[in-house]
Amino acid sequence: MREKIKEELSRKIRDAAGKYILELKLDLTVMPHINLESPKDKAHGDFASNIALQLSKQLKLAPRIIAEAIIKYFDPDCSWIKKKEIAGPGFINFYLHDSWLFEIIPEVIKQKKKYGSSDIGKNQKVMVEFVSANPTGPLHVGHGRGAVVGDVIANIMEFAGFSVTREFYINDTGNQMELLGLSAWIRYQELLGEEIKFPDNGYKGDYIKDIAKQFFAKYKDNYKRGAKEEYPGKTNIKIFSKFTGNYILKNIKEDLNIFGVKFDNWFTEKSLHESGQVKSAIEELRQKGYIYEQDGAQWFKSTVFGDDKDRVVITKENKTTYFAADIAYHRNKYERGFDKLIDIWGADHHGYIKRVKAVVEAFGHPYDSLDIIMIQLVSLMRNGVPVSMSKRDAEFVTLKEIIDEVGSDVSRFFFLMRSCDSDLEFDLELAKKESMENPVYYIQYAYARISSIFREMENQKIKLVPLSKIDFNELKEEHETELVKKLACFPGLLVQCAAAHEPHHLTKYLQELAGIFHGYYKKHKVLLPDQKGKMQARLYLVKSVKQVIENGLELMGVSLPEKM
RNA sequence: GCGCCUGUGGCUCAGCUGGAUAGAGCAUCAGAUUGCGGAUCUGAGGGUCGCACGUUCAAAUCGUGCCAGGCGCACCA
Asked: Whose C1' is closest to the CA of A310: which nucleotide?
């Protein structure tokens, strides 16, 4: 609704400016884009236009004179504008009538869980691919951030009318998997009393030892190495790597499940190889002239599309590279009919962006149809001291440990709070504090307080009268208009989050909304049996605040406690 | 050396499709409850927006160059 008003207002400003320019008999080649902003400062109205400042140069007139003229020519029959004023260097500030504002409340109440949703996605098919951790070890904190960001971007885009598929890409082939199998094999032999030198680049985490025990429990000593066998043969490596990979993947799925992150699809790299898609994708690129041979290897001409160097897709040993599989994978995504692809990667993969974007273009898809979101690092703090995260020594903190320690709600919220571009400092002590330092509780507390008002309402046998009988003009307090204005911003905010793929604005919004509510709650009472009209209006106001908090937290996957 | 991200009050961060007096939380200080939940509220102090040029009526925001931190630069995955 706020968006509609905004559009309407822009048009009226454009009309007024047009009439003025006509009167001046000037040839204006470009009418600047009408840029309506919502001023940060309440004293600057509900909408502000900088049109006069923009026109000032072309018209060779002082901005304030232009502003006055635009106001003069502004549609005199427009009823929903309460006041127009010129301010500062030449801004025109528009104030809306409160009565119009209060139409927001019935809208929230009627739309319920749909309030804030939109159809800007026009049902376009979007794939969000995220986490995609190698099944070589447990998920760590960094994966957690990517998981929540991906999950919530998907939620928000769905809410904005996109048709979203969530996918996890499993790298279940290649050297790393073999190394994983070897590591498990060695641990297994150790259980059987054999001493074998552990490779430097092997997986040293204790979880491998646990898996070896599981393996032993199932197969006993059937795979004990032969007397002359120093390292296992190919078949045994495969058996161990499959067992270990499956085991770890199962754990990854469990952790994500606990964290409330669900996928529609688990896509294996192996399937690309087995179905011949890796080969055929390279063939397609070859036909398009983007593949050449040099030094016995096959190269993809990614430099054509701005990459720093060309990339090998088939090695001298005639093996396809990881990148080759990624070529096939992205082609496959488009073949499945997705209009937009979103890949969410850890910051350490940024060097990979150009070559994958090159693939997109090489197959003839628009550059922008793939958005790669980089998630910067998470540093874990405990009492102001960084927690060691060295993966080499397997000291890293797993996602599971974090969730166990601070809970899913707090973890999710903390991961979402910051812009993806910023490093994120995750303070474990802060996360555990049940106080105002912790923004999650602050928001949930607002929700619980409203719930409590309605519990009390029932205790006092007060009934809500039908919406049609409510007179919202009873809402005269400053807090009340402020709350309603905040509620009105919700749909626009979500559109912005969906379009920019930036979920962190939502955390900020909910903190602000909760803040206004807490101030209101402290100062004004809702349950006023002596003033029925006012009470009923307030009940509906508070009910819509509750609804918006609910919609927001639900998008973030954070729970809604009726009591705390 | 090249590339990506970041640099905003003591701390953690918003703001970055240029707009008015740069915001929020924490911390600090001073206050608030005979009332629907004090996990709350009100107020105060605290800032050369890393530095320097440039573009503009207007720069935290755009451009260029430096400085600092993080992360990458495989015929590994």
From this structure: B75
